[in-house]
Amino acid sequence: MKDLFTEHELAVLRLLAQGRTQVEIAKALRIRPETVGRLLNRARILLRARTLPHAVARGYETGLLSPPAHNHGAGQGEHRSSGPGGPDRGRKPVG
Predict the structure, then answer these.
(1) What are the sequence ranges of the domains in the chain?
(2) Which end of the chain has the least Cβ crowding within 10 Å, N or C?
(3) Spatial distance between the Cα atoms of 20 and 40, rounded to a whole number of angstroms
(4) Confidence (pLDDT) at 80
C-alpha cells in the first residue's frame, strides 16, 4: 500500500498523527496550508477513511504508520514536580 503514496502524502500523514495542525504541518514542510489539505485529502481517500482521524487510524491499521518509539529516559523529570507556574500553582501544601 505504501507505494500508492507520495513522500509528501506520507509526511503530512505522519505529522498529522503526531497531533500537528495543518498550519503547523505547512510550516514544517515549507508548503502552503492549502497544499497540506490537498495532500491529506488524497491520503484519506487512498486509505478509504471517512475523516482525517479515521485516516490516521487506518494508517496504523495498515502498517503505513508506525507508533512512535518511547524513549524511557527522556522527559522523566517532567512529571516529578510541576515547578513554578505548573499545575500545582496556587494550591496550598498538604500537611
Answers:
(1) 2-62
(2) C
(3) 12
(4) 46
Rg (CA), the chain: 18
Evaluate the CA torsion angle 64, 67, 71, 74 in order and state its sign.
positive
* C-alpha span between 24 and 21 (Å, rounded): 5
Where is pLDDT greater, at 74 or 42?
42
Please say if the pLDDT value at position 35 is more than 60.
yes
How far is Cα 88 from Cα 74, in angstroms, rounded to an integer?
A: 22
DSSP 65-76: S-PPPP-TTTTG
- Report the predicted TM-score, pTM, of the whole model to 2 decimal places: 0.70
For 30, left (φ over 0), alpha (ψ -120 to 50), or beta?
Answer: left
Which CATH architecture is the domain 2-62 placed in?
Orthogonal Bundle (1.10)
